[in-house]
Each structure stands twice: as C-alpha cells, then as structure tokens.
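Q: what does this look like with cytidine-5'-monophosphate bound?
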Amino acid sequence: MALRKKIIIALDVKTEEQAVDLVKELKDYTGAFKIGLELFNSIGPRIIESVKDAGAERIFLDGKFHDIPNTVSGAARAAVRMGVWMFNIHVSGGFDMMESARLAAHEEAERLKIDPPLMIGVTVLTSIGQDTLHSQLKINSDLNDYVLHLAELARQAGLDGVIASAREAKRIKESCGSDFLVVTPGIRPSWASANDQIRIITPHEALENGSDYLIIGRAITSASNKVSAAEKIIAEIELAHP
Ligand code: C5P
C-alpha cells in the first residue's frame, strides 16, 4: 500500500463548504477522510455524499456507536448503506453488541453486494486517565492493561482493529495479532504545534511502532499551506519507510 494511503485526514470543521473545500484540496494526499460527530450531526448523512462528490474515495465515519445490540446493529446497517469504508463502535458496549453489529454490517454488505466496512473499536477515550477510570468508572485495572483487555475483547467479537495510541500499538499487535488494525490519532510532525494533544507521536514513529493508519487533523488542516504540510509528512514517512 502506498504510504500516503495510511493517512486519514480528520475533517474537524463545522460546515459542508469547509469540508468539501478540504477534500478538494487534499484528496491526492491521503487514503481517507474522517467525518466526526460534529460535522455529521451538523449536516446529516448527506455530508457523506458531498465529500464523496468532492473526490473523497474512502470515508471513516467516527460515530462511536454505543447502545444496546439491536440499536447498534441498526446503526451499523445504516453505515453500510451510506457506503463508508470504516466506522467505529465503543468496545465497552460489550461482546454481544460488537458481535451483533458485525454480523448485521456483514449481512447488509452481502445484501448490497459490496465489501463490508472495517469496524474499529474505541477502547478508552484519551480524555479518560487512570484517576477517572478508578474514581468515577470504578474500574480498578491499570489503564494500559484495561486498553489491552478491551482490544482483545474487540478481536474476539470479530472487529477489524482498534483506535489506540501508537505507544500501545506494539502490545496490541503482540496480543491480538499483526493483522489486527491499530488506527492512531495524536499524530504531530516534529515541526507542527501540539495543540491540546498531550501524548503525541510523529508520523514516522507511529508507523515504526506498528500503527496501520494515522489520523491527522490540525497538523494538515490548520497549516497555512495545507498541501505543503501534507507533502512534507508524506515525504518524511516515505524517507523513513522506503
Ligand atoms: O487535530 P488532531 O490531529 O489532534 O485531530 C485528531 C483527530 O482524532 C480528531 O478528530 C479527534 O477527535 C480524533 N481522536 C483523538 N483521540 C482519540 C480518538 C480520536 O484525537 N482518542
């Protein structure tokens, strides 16, 4: 796979026009575009069609589904009908929720004679630290062990991978197998601002650690020259992984 296809650009904008403009400008520098809850809930499902019409080949719907199995299965079928390439669900919804969503998505894809989307598990949100895990959620495990446990549960339920920091990618691959995908946010080239991300890692380090896909937002989308920021990142990873 060409290394630029491993980049997923986060369309963290409010309007359809901004999203479409970003796709037109950056479509040749990425493998996919990520539509999150703000954009999806602001515009509605038609945003998927709009960004596809603008040239986005693959869409990651970052909808983080979490509900009873029957409801998440329905949402998964709808994601298949929208033609997304990847979507995610919370692993903490449990094995039955994940498994029934996977079965529903695969059934719907078969009915439509299309490839099923990749289904990725959200383990522990990066906004939740060890203290919150213990004091509010009453989960007494070590945070890293808990992430690993959830990744393993996602694998058992048949998900294709998890969202995780590149720092955890190696342990996840060791435990869940090298084919189990690790999709990594918090990416910052050394020359870009960290913004509000704390545990950041460079694109090259993330690939080195075993991440399969790199979610990159502001390092590209807030750059004064977005194309040159994307080109610089691609050149860096191509140089490091010839
Ligand atoms: O601008 P930046 O590169 O920090 O954007 C990262 C993207 O990845 C955002 O869309 C953010 O919501 C998402 N994300 C994250 N951390 C997670 C999961 C998703 O930053 N644990």
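The pocket of cytidine-5'-monophosphate is lined by residues 10, 12, 36, 125-126, 163, 185-186, 195, 197, 215-219 (CB under 6 Å). Residues 5 and 31 are 4 Å apart (CA to CA).
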